[in-house]
Design goal:
The chain is α/β, with parallel strands linked by helices. The protein has 18 helices and 26 strands. It is 32% helix and 20% strand. It is globular and about 70 Å long. The mean pLDDT is 96.
Length: 491
């Protein structure tokens, strides 16, 4: 018999009041609470029906599932959100100004929480597979920011999900806050933390029992554009290995999420010349697990196991095999600048657009409307041994160029970007001056429809270390807003 009250989701939601600062565990849809947020959304709707206010401030590890960002967003129950989201409906509320949103580097997130910049945490909702009477918790398929959430929250509500009973042993929870010393991680496979999370049992308000999968959806099939980008990336990595620039052993790669990443994994998996490697990053997806199973990936570390249900069942059926080959760690560790630098990672991430000088926009469409957030892209780009950004050269059937004279919003500056890749080709920007970078990006990465316009911009730009003509820097965006096609830009 548990020492903690057994609650329904509706009873648990009663502990969360209007204007509360709520934190939810998980990282992507993996490890997110699944039933308490739904009950909370219904609670908010009842309040609104009675013309009473009910909105919360919501913090999470990263993006979430539909129960958290989707249902709470549509119930108009979210007033404030940080640090990352990927829900279509919530995104609209943010861009309409209905929800205050703070975007930021995930590596600094726990530090800001501890210092109280988001306020005092009222309630943490955490999914676990096991919990003991003395407060020992086994997390499920994600760690994210759960350790710092539990340490700093006034109260904790648990969703005990028996679907993940075999997850015990996959976690490596090192407390950065308590140690205040360099993280003693020499290789990816080192176990330096604990398998469980210890919390003050007096904080635990109760436990809601569930038996639900994460519901991760498979990515759509890769397109020929994704395949072409992946081919350029793998060819480049092979050239760097032959030159002796990249170490063959140990080669460690960080991979962002999405179809381009999946295409890169596919090309690596079928390239016999590509050596075995390890993965260190935020999200472990199906493609990584497939190569891990084949032995092409030697070890994988992430903050979440964001895999489809069939793959999760494979992991649980062969738990001993996978426990020797993968670990789940807090995002404060996976994204820690010191760790990223020490591992000499190759960072592969996607972008919305880049400009000809190498600045990257990964978050805001047309400079104003947020898509998701920067997440960990900046953590890895700035600190990796090699930083690569990948994107199609055009969007909207060619009406938008992803290579522009000057980015409408800049998340990563030219100083953090080593290589840009589109389906057109690859631009290695290392050791190049601004003008050399611009020529390299235009020639190798821009779509042929836009090359003349980009060269024309560079010719008309004023002299200086970085050649910009600020009267025409945003001509591409102006043309799109007025005509619906950037190719109509006048330069």
């Amino acid at each position: 018999m548990s020492a903690f009250p057994k609650l329904t989701a509706e009873e648990a939601a009663e502990y969360i009041s209007n204007d509360a600062l709520l934190v939810c565990g998980g990282f992507t849809a993996a490890g997110c609470p699944k039933v308490i947020p739904l009950a909370l959304a219904k609670r908010a709707e009842r309040f609104h029906a009675d013309r009473k206010p009910f909105r919360i401030k919501l913090l999470t590890g990263a993006s979430t599932n539909d129960a958290v960002d989707g249902e709470l967003g549509r119930a108009r129950a979210i007033a404030f959100r940080a640090p990352y989201q990927a829900d279509r409906d919530l995104r609209k509320f943010i861009n309409d100004g209905d929800v205050d949103y703070v975007d930021g580097h995930l590596s600094r997130y726990a530090h800001l929480l501890r210092q109280g910049f988001f306020g005092d945490i009222d309630v943490a909702v955490i999914e676990v597979s096991h919990c003991t009477d003395d407060g020992e918790l086994t997390l499920t398929t994600a760690v994210g920011s759960a350790p710092v959430f539990c340490r700093n929250a006034k109260y904790i509500l648990l969703e005990r999900n028996t679907y993940h009973e075999k997850i015990a042993g996959f976690h490596d929870l090192y407390d950065v806050e308590l140690n205040h010393v360099p993280i003693p991680l020499r290789s990816l496979s080192d176990r330096i933390g604990t398998k469980t999370l210890r919390v003050d049992p007096k904080k635990i308000l109760g436990v809601v029992e569930t038996h639900l999968p994460d519901g991760i959806e498979a990515f759509k099939p890769c397109t020929s554009v994704h395949e072409a980008i992946a081919g350029h990336v793998v060819d480049f990595l092979l050239r760097e290995i032959r030159r002796g620039v990249l170490p063959v052993t140990p080669l460690a790669i960080e991979l962002g999420t999405g179809n381009i990443t999946n295409a890169v994994l596919k090309h690596i998996g079928t390239c016999e010349e590509m050596p075995k490697f390890s993965v260190h990053g935020e999200v472990l997806q199906d493609g990584i697990l497939e190569l891990l199973t084949q032995g092409r990936i030697e070890f994988a570390v992430g903050s979440s196991l964001t895999v489809t249900d069939p793959w999760l069942q494979k992991i649980y059926e062969r738990e001993d095999f996978y426990k020797e080959r993968l670990l789940l760690r807090p995002s404060e560790m996976t994204n820690h600048p010191e760790v990223i630098q020490r591992l000499n990672l190759v960072a592969l991430n996607a972008a919305l657009e880049t400009d000809i000088f190498g600045n990257v926009n990964s978050t805001h469409v047309m400079g104003t409307s947020v898509m998701n957030g920067i997440g960990g892209a900046g953590d890895f780009a700035r600190n990796a041994g090699l930083s690569i950004f990948m994107l199609p050269s055009t969007a909207k059937d060619g009406k938008i160029s992803s290579i522009v004279p000057f980015c409408s919003h800049i998340d990563l500056t030219e100083h953090d970007v080593d290589v840009i890749v589109t389906e057109q080709g690859l631009a290695d920007l290392r050791g190049k001056s601004p003008e050399q970078r611009a020529l390299c990006v235009i020639e190798n990465c821009a779509h042929p429809d836009y090359k003349p316009l980009l060269y024309a911009y560079l010719r008309r730009a004023k002299s200086g270390h970085i050649r910009h003509d600020l009267t025409a820097a945003f001509a591409f965006y102006d043309a799109y807003e007025k005509t619906g096609d950037m190719r109509n830009a006048r330069l």
